[in-house]
Amino acid sequence: GAGKPGHEGSDRKKALTPPEKREAAEYLVEQHGLSIGRGCDCVGLSRAAWYQSPLDWQEKDADVIDALNALVEAHPRWGFWKYRARLRTQGYSWNHKRIYRVYCALGLNQPRRTKRRLPERVREPLFAPERPDQVWSADFMSDTLYHGTRFRTFNIIDDFNREALAIEIDTSLRAPRVVRVLERLKEQGRIPDVLRVDNGPEFLSECLSQWCRDNGVLLQYIQPGKPNQNAYIERFNRTYRNEVLNLYLFRSLDEVREITGHWMMEYNDQRPHDALGKLPPTVYAERNAGNSTLELST
User: Fold this and answer.
1) Residue 107: left (phi > 0), alpha (psi -120 to 50), or beta?
2) Which end of the chain is more exposed for a tag (fewer CB within 10 A), N or C?
3) Rounded CA separation 58/64 (Å)
4) Are 261 and 166 spatial neighbours (Cβ–Cβ below 8 Å)?
5) 47 in the Ramachandran plot: left (φ > 0), alpha (ψ -120 to 50) or beta?
6) 277 and 183 in one domain?
7) Total structural domains in the chain?
């Protein structure tokens, strides 16, 4: 991998960190009888660092440590910049350099194992809505419970602000169930001008087509084999899988529904969203209805 400037050679020895220097100096003093001064000189440690308590930084940065640990416990799949954005929304004024220093000292910058991604697809422009409920995207996902039972989720988002409108969860989700979810949203005062979907059997059903005709909704199908044309919901699905489905071992559908419900509320109302200027979806909608410039990020 790429190193820092001045460290291009892969065979160069890595410099000791201050804690490692202190440990080496202690070994020389205790095991070889060197004076503290001589031991420090041998490993390049200053006398001040020798006499400084190793816990000084932890005491000085205790508030930062507590805040970061709380976020990591709640959102273990987030990265540094999303943590930093969340700390800002929580009212903390620490600069990013201090936060990153503590972040690294806690070992939170270590590589995390991730799935291999597919090759990058050709990007095609998507229509960027200018107001809520102009275009919705919908899609299905599947997963398994701890004991092997498969279940599905039916997800709907508002393309304008990426708001998660519904995640329906069950072992079977057919077209009539899709219509019931849409009807429930309609009763809440939410109905789209356009509903963008793929060519799955539930979306090709006459049941859904009739509901759309009755409610003045344009049912817009993407081309077969081109999921990038439904990129907003694809990106949402990846976030949901990464932060919920891949993070827990669920023993029942009720557990999936409960954790998903909590996640949806936080995703919509609190989670910083890169494509929304670090704003949560509901806050973005309040501030930007009529002025949409969305990108493909979460």
Assistant:
1) left
2) N
3) 9
4) no
5) alpha
6) yes
7) 3
The amino acid that residue 143 corresponds to is D
Return the residue matching tokens 């669920």.
Answer: 250
Strand segments (E) across the chain = 135-144, 150-158, 163-170, 194-197, 218-221
* Residues sharing a CB contact under 8 Å with residue 182, sequence separation 6 or more, in sequence order: 156, 191, 195, 211
Task: Quote the tokens at residue 267.
Answer: 């995703």
Please tell me the total number of residues recorded for the chain in this structure: 298
pLDDT per residue rounded down to tens, the chain (298 residues): 444 444 444 444 556 777 778 788 888 888 888 888 888 888 888 877 777 655 556 678 888 988 988 888 788 888 899 999 999 999 999 999 999 988 888 778 766 554 444 333 333 356 678 889 999 999 999 999 998 899 999 999 999 999 999 999 999 999 999 999 999 999 999 999 999 998 888 999 999 999 999 999 999 988 877 777 888 999 999 999 999 999 999 999 999 999 999 999 999 998 888 877 788 888 888 887 655 444 455 5
255 and 147 both lie in a single domain: yes
- Predicted model pTM: 0.60
Q: DSSP letters along 194-234, please?
A: EEEE-S-HHHHSHHHHHHHHHTT-EEEEPPTT-GGGGHHHH
Query: Can you give the CATH number for the domain in which 251 is found?
Result: 3.30.420.10
Residue 277 zone, left/alpha/beta (φ > 0; ψ -120 to 50; rest): left
A 10 A CB-CB count for 136 gives: 29
- The closest of 218, 176, 167 to 201, measured between CA atoms, is 176
Same domain, yes or no, for 196 and 282? yes
Range of the domain at 35: 16-52
Given a contact cutoff of 8 angstroms between Cβ atoms, the answer to whether 167 and 195 are in contact is: no
